[in-house]
Amino acid sequence: MNKISRTLKKMFGKKVYVDISTTQSGNLLRDKCVVITGGSEGIGAAIARKCISQGARVLITGRDEVKLHNFADAVDRDKVSVLNWDISDCTVIEEKFKQVLNELGQVDIWINNAGIYRDVNYSSCRLRDWDEIMSTNIRGPYFATNRVANYFIEEKIKGVILNISSETGKVAGTNPYGFSKNIIMQYTEGLAVELGKYGIRSNAIAPGGVATKIAGRTTGDELSFPALGGRLITCEEIAELALFLVAPLSSCINGQVIYANEGNTIVIPSGNIY
User: Is 250 in a helix, a strand, or coil?
Assistant: First the structure.
């Protein structure tokens, strides 16, 4: 992916800068307990910071314990906890969820952000690639979230589930990463149908290219990108949208997939159709 990004940089060489609006520190999530999988860097870390700024107590999970603790040290240790949890391992879900409850006391908001990407297609995808992508992006989040959903119902918590999908789940492709993100979209809608009667909401964000390691660039680099908007999306922009979807501000929104890609997946008619 880095090689591709460098090529694009030469092809679309102009520098692109973007001004984004962000919410100020407040109390939108006061007294709420938020769990974010894959929360030590990128989109997950940006969402964690945003939730903390709005009064939430946050727990982030991930495979790399060093990265987890580095993030916690960089923010308020009183407001963030860490849990070393490989979400692809379904055998530890009950154990890890108990640790979550022991640390936070309860869970109000569950954000599925952990995921992996492999730059493969129909001719290069190996069975190992397929298994890694599907176990991390689908199998683990599916069974972990099912546990969370049952917890919300049992404890009569009007919880919120937010899934991080991708625009690749909508467009044609042979990379199983896109397949996994399409499944997340369907799962989001299914959860909304089945859990809505309990007051539990489920929504998803489908970002376009985001300034993360997957895209080969970070927020501090050039944001030019060959998409409809001409740029990468920043992690902070995704975090702002995530805040809206998990906060009471969006109480009427359920079962929706919000594309955060400047319209990149809009079907544009070719030629004059009028």
Answer: helix
Name the one residue in this structure whose structure tokens are 């397949």.
179
| Of 240, 201, 258, 234, the residue nearest 26 (C-alpha) | 240
* DSSP-assigned letters across all residues of 49-81: HHHHHTT-EEEEEES-HHHHHHHHHHS-TTTEE
Letter for the amino acid at 114? Answer: A
Among 1.20.1250.20, 3.40.50.720, 3.30.930.10, 1.10.10.10, name the CATH number for the domain at 2-260. 3.40.50.720
Q: What are 36-87's pLDDT values in tens digits?
A: 999 999 999 999 999 999 999 999 999 999 999 999 999 988 899 999 999 9
Q: What is the pTM of this model?
A: 0.88
The per-residue b/e assignment along 100-130, b for 16 or more CB within 10 angstroms, e otherwise, is beeebeebbbbbbbbbbbbebeeeebeeebe
**Are the CB atoms for 243 and 209 separated by under 8 Å?**
no
